């Protein structure tokens, strides 16, 4: 299965490690440092020019990549089937 994360970007569901809300996770200093380091090392890709609402951490062929998505983390998790009972 694939996960549509915004614009024309889809990723294989098997590559998804985590789907995180950008607003709540960046309250933590450690999370901000993690994202800053990932950006400096070129692991981050914005899928659109819209303000990101979530980020998706993936791994393929032992290489990590972080996608900034304009779609909320709850919506992405519902699309994956991780959350079935939330209305």
Brief synopsis:
The protein has 87 residues and is α+β, with helices and mostly antiparallel strands. It contains 3 helices and 6 strands.
Q: Total domains, how many?
A: 1
SSE class: alpha+beta
Write down the overall geometry: globular
Classify the helix fraction into a percent range. 25-40%
- Give the radius of gyration: 13 Å
| Quaternary state of the chains | single chain
Task: Compute the number of helices.
Answer: 3
Strands side by side in the biggest sheet: 3-5-6-4
Distance between the termini: 22 Å
Mean pLDDT: 92
Number of strands: 6
Explained architecture:
This protein has three helices and six strands, in the order E-E-E-H-H-E-E-E-H. The protein has 87 residues and is α+β, with helices and mostly antiparallel strands. The chain has one domain (2-80). A hairpin with a 2-residue loop joins strand 1 (2-6) and strand 2 (9-12). The two termini are 22 Å apart. The mean pLDDT is 92.
Describe the secondary structure blueprint for this structure.
Layout: E1 2-6, E2 9-12, E3 16-21, H1 22-25, H2 29-40, E4 44-46, E5 54-60, E6 63-69, H3 73-80
Parallel strand pairs: 4-6
Antiparallel strand pairs: 1-2, 3-5, 5-6
Provide keyphrases for this structure.
87 residues, two-stranded antiparallel ribbon, alpha+beta, 3 helices, four-stranded mixed beta sheet
């Amino acid at each position: 299965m694939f996960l549509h994360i915004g614009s024309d970007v889809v990723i294989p569901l098997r590559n998804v490690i985590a789907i995180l809300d950008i607003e709540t996770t960046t309250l933590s200093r450690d999370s901000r440092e993690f994202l800053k380091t990932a950006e400096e090392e070129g692991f981050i890709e914005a899928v659109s020019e819209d303000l990101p609402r979530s980020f998706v951490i993936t791994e393929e062929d032992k290489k990590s990549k972080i996608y900034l998505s304009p779609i909320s983390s709850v919506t992405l998790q519902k699309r994956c089937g991780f959350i079935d009972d939330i209305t």
